[in-house]
Amino acid sequence: MPLRFETRASDSPWVDTVWTCTSEQVTEMTSVATACWGLVFWQREGTAYASVSGPETGTGTAPVPEGATFVGIEFAVGTSLRSLPTPALVDGGAELPGTTRRTFRLDGASWETPGPDDAEALVGRLVRSGAVIRDPLVTEVRRGHRPAVSERTVERRFRAATGLTQGAVRQIERAREASALLAAGTPIVDVVSGLDYFDEPHLARALRRYVGRTARQLREGTGGAIALNLDQPATS
Hints:
This protein is α+β, with helices and mostly antiparallel strands. The chain has seven helices and twelve strands. It has helices spanning 119-129, 136-142, 151-162, 166-183, 188-194, 200-210, 215-220; strands spanning 3-9, 15-23, 28-31, 38-44, 47-53, 60-63, 69-75, 79-81, 93-95, 103-106, 109-112, 132-134. The strands form four sheets. A six-stranded antiparallel beta sheet has the order 1-2-7-4-5-9, with helices on one face. It has a two-stranded antiparallel sheet with strand order 3-6. The chain has a two-stranded antiparallel sheet with strand order 8-12. α4 packs across α6. The longest helix has 18 residues, at 166-183. The protein is globular, with a radius of gyration of 18 Å.
């Protein structure tokens, strides 16, 4: 495989997933929509890099440094960096300066570069320092609760925290779930009904917009390298 992904869920309320990736004989991949922002660390030819990735509202093509190894932390929807609000990161990101193989700089301080098993420990330190924050109202809404404020206030707070509308987040997450189900062999009709798509053309449009693949490509594993782990379900 040109991109070898491993993804796991997290027991931290601040983290959505932690992932690792190794690139081999690939120079570009299909990027996939995501509602999360993240921290990404990678090494290539002895040089270390770190960056902040923002939520992505659609699919596209992204370069891949061949022979690189990556560790990524996808933060829960509603969290953000104190020094770099999530709306400013939508469909973009920022490289972190002063990165070495052992440390990186963020929010005016130096932090130890994590491995995949150290991600939650790093996030805990970032939270305690105030470098990573969240809007508790967004967290409450994401858990299915109805806060005692108007829908207009909820939507305003949600966009301020995430850079996205609630509807956009739901559509992105649903398309990603549909991709995983199709890649696992779930029949299209079951994906349509199980995830409340109107019909198969509705699902096809969502996959094209947010994942850059057809249902057939997802089932067959074709279409080239993609920034989505379709071989292994997330595990805690």
